Amino acid sequence: MQTWTQENGYATGGDDGRALVIASRGETRDLVMAALADEGFHAVEIPAASTRPGRFPDEAPALIVVDAGERTEDWCRRVRSRVRLEHVPVIALTDGDGREALHGLYGAGATAVFIKPVDHVFLRERFRSHGDTGRTLTGMQPAIMADARILHAVPDTFFVLGEDGMVREYLGGGEKDPLLRPERLARRRLSEVLPRDVAALIVRNIRRTLSSGGPCNFEFELGGAGEKQRYEMRLLAQGRDRVMAITRNVTDMAVAGRVAGGGGPDTLTGLPGRTAFLGRLDAMIEDARRLGRGLAVMSIDLDRFTRINETLGRAVGDAILRVVGSRLERCLRDADAVQRARPGEGGATELARIGGDEFVVVLRDVDDRRTVAQVAGRIRAAFADPVSYQGHQLEVTPSIGIALYPADGSDAQGLLHSARAALDEARMGGEAGQEFYSDTMRQRALRRLDLKDELRLAIERDQLELRYLPRIDLETGRVAGLEALLRWQHPARGAVSLQELIPLAEATGLMRPIGKWVLHAACAHAAYWAETWEAMPPISVNLSEQEFCRDDLPRVVYGALEAAGLEPAQLELELTEAMLMREKQAAVMLQKLKALGVGIVIDDFGVGHSSLGRLIQYPVKAIKIDRSFVEQCQADTAQRSVCSAIIAMSRELGLAVIAEGVETVEQIDFLRERGCHALQGFFFAEPLRVDDVPAFLAAHLGRTPDGAVIDLATIRSRFALRNTG
Q1: 360 lies in which domain range?
Q2: Is the pLDDT of residue 499 over 90?
Q3: Same domain for 48 and 190
């Protein structure tokens, strides 16, 4: 490491892995240095307390990290004032004093702002991601300034794209590409020169990249039937409204076959490819038909694989696929001495990779479902241990759909279709992770296929809406909160249930944009109501697991608050305890959300595997007792005892307790006696339309003296009369 001095400044060199660190002395500064070293950066430091920073480097670093306490914003501005540093990613670390501090840092030119505390793994991932951008730009800048012809032979094409899809600048490369010609794109919108679906795909990923701050990798095709070209694009955030787009023509690679399309093996895993597998499956079906034996086809894909590919890059994704192929082979070899079929050999199984993260297993001579279920269970058990790759511990869980011959299909394509329909059920069906095909699945699969296409247009067509379920304070009878609930009012199908909507959104990759819309809409409603109601209760929004896993969640929440002008204390985020148990970085994420000033509520408490003792490790404001306990609290049951214990222990720990699903006076009496703080359920009101919320607040808010104990049944009647009169 080099250290700056007032007399000499610091030396520069040609190392494009240089990182400039402007930091105060302390634990975080040491953490930054260690993370940079682990990622291969040569760290050069300017002490944050310096008033005479000497000269900045003659050659730009790949990354700049600023952790200067109260002077962080000033240092960001100073860095951005230097011509050679305009393009360099700047990561600012802050203790996080709310929205004004974050707004100031982004306004001062920070590329990304992270709220402390941060851990070593988090920093390494961010430095790796933003360092990729910095290394690319640092290496290219001298070439661009000296002679752009140096880039003519580069196979990649480099563009700077705006958030709106405008090609702001062509930097070089790719001049021999047959379709993606630089002269066609420069200074034009993508929608003007590319097919509508391709342009829309790129713009969506641009916005995702700017929102997350991390890289985004994806593929697309151009051209007609006679000259289809396949491209891989990598987007890297550059400031707040533009990205670097690095595009490579991978047509030759696709022809060679990452998943073999011809008769040869998949070049990545060594397993049979799609065409070879389908031919082999047809032969096995013919054998089964001739011998009168059964056959099972398992369609297997990996949960969260798309997220891993997008956040950590294709190299990591490819490494995982190789591990998955090896584990499946080993699992099938060890299970009941079943041998993988080799070309030209007999055998009880066939294993292939037929596309992306989709693997297929065929079991021959199947007598009953139990044997197939046991093999599927062994496959899932084989992935209990995470996959290790370059310091990452990645949880990879397979979902399995199973189809049986002859009941579920008479040929290879029919069996695969049935297995995939069962796979869809497995992905959306919860913890089991494996499903057999049934006759009703195909109809549900066709319905979901239609709904997937329609869901993509639901936001644009204003078919999504929010309803609000009130939370009532048990002591005063006043409204203590409003829970935002998502509804999809389909013009032809009517109301689509949440049980169908949420899994569908997660399976189609639409949960993130829908979740962002919910946050913005709920914050806007709350801010509007707060203009009328001085004592406006907080609004709460449920987070899905996919939303909670996104690295940029604090930025998304901050953006929703900022856009609405809503105080952070007026927003609560609800998460299930199961999500906290599954997400290894839960504590870090909750601390970042807490630093924004929002409240954290644990939903459906009691049905997961955590404990109240563990919850005190998290910055939790309240817990919500799952409705299954509330429903049984009147009878002398175990649920009644658990409900009482949760309330008592929570009060001792200083946590507010909210009971869900309250529907009877007897439940209210029981919960009041045990000291529950608040209730919500259809006893008081069904979820309210947005226009009905002000009337409900008028019926409840501030209508009783402070400290008065209210007969909630009377309040309920008063509300009913107010709305019918």
Answers
A1: 261-437
A2: no
A3: no
**CA 344, CA 359: separation in Å to the nearest integer?**
21
Alpha carbons 432 and 138: distance in angstroms, whole number: 49
Residue 645 lies in a domain: yes
Task: Indicate if the pLDDT at residue 703 is higher than 70.
Answer: no
- Model confidence band, residue 725 (pLDDT cutoffs 50, 70, 90): very low
- Which H or E run contains 322? helix 314-334
* Closest-CA residue to 54 (of 13, 20, 4): 4
Helix axes of 196-212 and 553-564: crossing angle, nearest 10 degrees: 90
pTM for the model stands at 0.49
- Per the structure, how many domains does the chain have? 4
Per-residue DSSP letters for 327-385? HHHHHHHHGGGPPBP-TT---SEEEEEEETTEEEEEEEEE--HHHHHHHHHHHHHTTSS
Q: Tell me how long the chain is.
A: 725
Neighbouring residues of 646: CB distance < 8 A, sequence distance ≥ 6: 605, 606, 612, 623, 625, 629, 657
Among residues 97, 115, 145, the one where a domain terminates is 145
Looking at the domain assignment, is residue 619 inside a domain?
yes
**Are 437 and 403 spatial neighbours (Cβ–Cβ below 8 Å)?**
yes
- Which structure tokens are listed for 80? 């951005």
Query: Residue for token digits 């644009």?
Result: 460
Using the 3D structure, point to which of 253, 282, 305 is the last residue of a domain.
253
State the average pLDDT for the chain. Answer: 76
Kindly report, residue by residue over 100-145, the tens digit of the pLDDT: 676 678 777 777 778 777 777 778 877 876 776 566 555 444 434 3
DSSP 147-193: -GGGGGG-SEEEEEEETTSBEEEEEE--TT-SSS-HHHHTTSBHHHH
Q: What percent of the chain has pLDDT over 90?
A: 11
The phi, psi pair for 601, rounded to 5°, reads: -125, 135
Q: Are β-strands 479-490 and 494-496 bridged in parallel, bridged antiparallel, or unpaired?
A: antiparallel
Q: Does residue 576 register a pLDDT over 80?
A: yes
pLDDT tens readout for residues 205-237: 888 777 766 667 677 888 754 567 778 787 877
Cα–Cα dist 289/218, whole Å: 42
Return the ∠ at Cα 457 (arms to 234 and 526), rounded to 5°: 95
Cα-based distances in Å from 458 to 455, 498, 518: 5, 14, 13
One-letter amino acid for residue 363 of the chain = L
Task: Verify that 47 and 68 share a domain, yes or no.
Answer: yes
The predicted structure's pLDDT at residue 404: 92
Residue 355 domain flag: yes
